[in-house]
Every structure is written in C-alpha cells, then in structure tokens.
Design goal:
Alpha-D-Glucose-1,6-Bisphosphate, Chain A, domain 4, 163 residues, 3 helices
C-alpha cells in the first residue's frame, strides 16, 4: 500500500509517503531483521550496514547502487515496535537536509505475522522534492519486498540486482 498525503486543508508544506506490507514472521523477529546490521546487510544494505539501530546512535549504511556509506542517525528505537531514523536528503522541506523515516511493526494473527509500515517525511513540495521522495519511496518498497523474502525464506532479492 502506498500513500502520499496532506494531513489537513492547509497549503502543502512538505511531502511524505507511507508504504506497508505483511511479513509472515513474529514482530520481534521482523524488528531484528531491520535493527541488526548483520541481517540488514544480507538483504538491503548491499554494501553493508555498520552499527545496530539503537536510540541515540549513528550507524552507516552502504548500497551497491549508491556507493558510499550514508550516516543514519537513530532518533528512537522501541523494540519490537518502532524505529525512527534521520538521514541526509536533498530538497527537504525545512532546508536542513534531513528526512525522517519511521518503521512501525504491528503484530497480526496472534503474532504469527507482522505489518511493517515505513513512513518518510520532510521532502519539499517542489518538483525536485517530489522526484527525490518518489525515488526513496521506490527504495523503501524494494526494502519491504527484500525484507519479506529474507525473513520468510532466507532469500536475498537484491543480490546481483544492482551490479
């Protein structure tokens, strides 16, 4: 599911989006697949993740399709339900060059499945902001698909995909 929205009738001040999907694993296991750098490196950060996603820390993510380590600041980590990160972006709404991404993990069906919802905000309501928001939306949608394949079947969908 994908949503772009303006939460009220005021003039649009920023762009944000939400993507979500269901993973057939318990909530704590799915949370760990995101928070643990070893697991994250096996299905998403194709160049590697350094550091566990814990509140108040800074970690790095590297991607084969966008080489170079990206600093990721962990604003909040509430296992096994929520992680909030900030990372650098261009065309941001307040001009500080940061976007905020929130991962929410909701147990479903007696915790046999997890609804993963990813929301990213802080993009400028401009053509450049929309282009960058759509690009990140594509990335997070791919991450959700890769997370599902990894958590449920141990398959890395991104292997060989970008290089």
């Amino acid at each position: 599911m994908l949503y772009f929205y303006n939460m009220n009738s005021d003039p649009l001040s920023e762009l944000s989006f939400t993507v979500s999907g269901r993973v057939a694993r318990p909530c704590a296991e799915v949370y760990e697949a995101v928070a643990d750098p070893d697991q994250l490196s096996k299905y998403f950060t194709t160049g590697g993740a350094r550091g566990r996603l814990e509140g108040g820390t800074e970690v790095t993510w590297d991607f084969a399709d966008f080489p170079g380590a990206f600093p990721v600041r962990v604003v909040e980590a509430d296992p096994p339900r929520r992680i909030v990160i900030e990372w650098d972006g261009e065309a941001t709404a307040d001009g500080d060059g940061k976007t905020t991404t929130t991962f929410e993990f909701e147990p479903l069906d007696d915790d046999s499945r997890t609804l993963v919802t990813i929301t990213e905000s802080s993009w400028a309501p401009t053509a450049d902001g929309a282009k960058r928001a759509f690009g990140n939306c594509e990335g997070w949608t791919g991450m959700l698909a890769a997370l599902k394949a990894w958590a449920e079947h141990g398959i890395n969908l991104r292997e060989g995909f970008y290089k």
